[in-house]
Amino acid sequence: MELQKEINAQPDKTLLQKMKDTLRLYGPGIVMILTMMGAGDLVSSSVSGSNYGYALMWLLVGSLLIRYVICNIMGRFQMFNNQEMTILEGYSRIHKFFPYFFGIASLIIGHLIIAQMIKGSGIALAWMFGVGDEFLWSIGVVLTSLFIMGRNAYRNVELVMKVLLGVLTFCFVGLAVYSGPSVGGIIKGTIGFGLPEETGTYSVILVGLALVGAVAGSLTNLIYPYFLQDKGWTKPIHKKIQRNDLLFGFICAIILNLAIWIVGAEILRPNGIQVESVEDISRALSMHMGQLGSWIFYLGVFGILYSSVIGTANGYGKVITDCYYKITNKILKKDQKIEGDPTFKWISLFLLISPIIWSIPGVTGFIALVLFTNALNVVGLPAIAVGLLIISNQKKYLGKATNNWFENTVLVVTTVLAIWGSYKILMSFFA
């Protein structure tokens, strides 16, 4: 916080220099957004754009709003609660069900999310370099991640994430600009609030639920307060910088999601290309931009997927470890960080290594794995939303820093939609 004031108070620095200094100061919001923006955004947005044009874009806007509000509420709880609780401790004080549920669910979802990212990263690297097997490249991704997740894990992850943000901006925004987006189509799709007729390979309901699961973040929302802890933003004085940092990440998420969607709507849809594999998107781009277009696309694919590999392993590892603490009544020493505990190291190691089985040739398709995982994500939203609605309105912990009416409305609406989405997912299994 003091550093931000110092940056703003230096009159001899240009606006660009101040922006660079501020970007160096920022971190948790960038790490959070790029962790969330994995295969789900890549596939769900491109599938939505290729199948339905801009018709489902209102779901993207609504989901991003939900993401921002939920993350901001969780961040405020982390900084303002008067007992220095973690977010999981807040949930566990409601009922012991929460650490058990979140611990098991995070282990399953974290495993599947990283499985998507590792598999997709291997596909991207194999195509970009034109040599080697996709499975071998996936193994290389895991080994590189183990190195980054060594000592000072969060600091290393944050540094890599900022580099990947630049790569993603160059790749996907460049492709979107070249595609020639329809401003009118974007506006109509944003305020249309409707579901189009079934025209694609995947049903509207599945694509819609996958989009909500991917963009609203689901269980991944729980990892944000742990990034704030790692950054040292744990007091009320950090509220302004935390909010600005998260807002910056939120704006980046909007831009990148729109860019991916535009590619689907303006290049894939007119050519009648249904997205059943990453190669489908590359094939359409090569028709319009040649080999360069495909190479830029795959570079962006690698960036968006790899950012989620290290972010998920780090964040979910901390959520699962904290759930273990609450179940076993283990207490960390004062000022001790979770990532310094051996339990976290073993859990993050499992999360990184075990998903490699999904990259074995012939096990499953990349797109199918992504859509299934992101739709399954919705099942966890009711517990998150209901619990957060309770703990974020408790004045005995937060004083005057409880929710306002708008935040409570978002949480209530999210809870209703999440229950409906969970019901649809369960019914589809028995249909």
What does the secondary structure layout of this molecule look like, with pairings?
Layout: H1 2-8, H2 15-25, H3 28-36, H4 39-52, H5 57-80, H6 87-92, H7 97-129, H8 134-148, H9 153-179, H10 183-191, H11 204-215, H12 224-231, H13 239-268, H14 278-289, H15 291-328, H16 342-353, H17 366-377, H18 381-391, H19 395-398, H20 405-430
Helix pairs in contact: 1-2, 3-9, 3-12, 3-13, 3-15, 4-11, 4-13, 4-17, 5-10, 5-11, 5-12, 5-13, 5-20, 7-8, 7-15, 7-17, 9-13, 9-15, 11-17, 14-15, 15-16, 18-20
Brief digest:
The protein has one domain: Up-down Bundle (Amino acid/polyamine transporter I), CATH 1.20.1740.10.
Task: Tell me what the structure shows.
- The protein has 431 residues and is mainly α.
- The protein is 74% helix and 0% strand.
- It has a single domain, classed as Up-down Bundle (Amino acid/polyamine transporter I).
- The protein has helices at residues 2-8, 15-25, 28-36, 39-52, 57-80, 87-92, 97-129, 134-148, 153-179, 183-191, 204-215, 224-231, 239-268, 278-289, 291-328, 342-353, 366-377, 381-391, 395-398, 405-430.
- The longest helix has 38 residues, at 291-328.
- The mean pLDDT is 81.
Helix count from the secondary structure assignment: 20
What name is given to the CATH topology?
Amino acid/polyamine transporter I
Distance between the termini: 54 Å
Instruction: Please indicate the count of domains.
Output: 1
The largest β sheet comes out as: none
Shape: globular
Q: Give the C-level CATH assignment.
A: Mainly Alpha
How many strands? 0
